[in-house]
Amino acid sequence: MIDGLQYLPNYLSRDAQEELVDIVRKQLNNNPFYTPRMPRSAQPFSVKMTNLGTLGWVSDISGYRYEKIHPETQKTWPSIPRALMSIWEALAQYPNPPEACLVNYYDVNAKMGLHTDSDEQDIKAPVISISLGDSARFRIGGLSRKDPTKSFKINSGDIIILGGAARMAFHGIDRIYGGSSTLLKNGGRLNLTLRRVNK
Length: 199
Ligand SMILES: O=C(O)CCC(=O)C(=O)O
Ligand SMILES: [Fe+2]
Hints:
The protein is mainly beta. It has one domain: Alpha-ketoglutarate-dependent dioxygenase AlkB-like (Jelly Rolls), CATH 2.60.120.590. It has helices at 14-27, 82-91; strands at residues 5-8, 48-53, 56-60, 63-67, 100-106, 112-115, 127-133, 135-140, 150-154, 159-162, 171-177, 189-195. It has a six-stranded antiparallel β-sheet with strand order 1-10-7-12-5-2, covered by helices on one side. The protein has a four-stranded antiparallel β-sheet with strand order 6-11-8-9, with no helix packed on it. 2-oxoglutaric acid binds next to β5, β7, β11 and β12.
């Protein structure tokens, strides 16, 4: 596996997962998931997205970028809750706090193609990714799209850290294992990624 990728299986207990889902759901109140679209083609993503933080990652016909407001409600994103800040403080080994928490929701048919997280100025900071709900097949490659990739199954409560040499590695979600978790009332998978954007 590429150096700098840290996989922390079962980092969150079931109780901690339930608590986190509750906290995030409350914080997302009036900050709905929307359907992002591919730059240029405007093809819809299968993953629904929203954000917490002073900045949020958005994608539409004009491109990928960070914005201070929700693309549909035009309201600022709710703040990143303390429970998530604490996870960052425990794991990031980085002095500055995250500015964005991208919240991804995958229904059973959703997936995310191989990509790099490259819209952040500060690539010395890691990206911390928290999985909640249904299991998924995570794919990780190298720094070039052509590099060989490996995949493994990730489960609710697992955390992946993309740091160091793995910060700019290609990664994606091949598939969701529908019905594999009872954590989310309506099924599916919630993924939270904590990101530092500005240096
Ligand atoms: O859902 C995941 O585990 C990965 C999400 C991801 O790579 C992203 O939002 O950039
Ligand atoms: Fe990513």
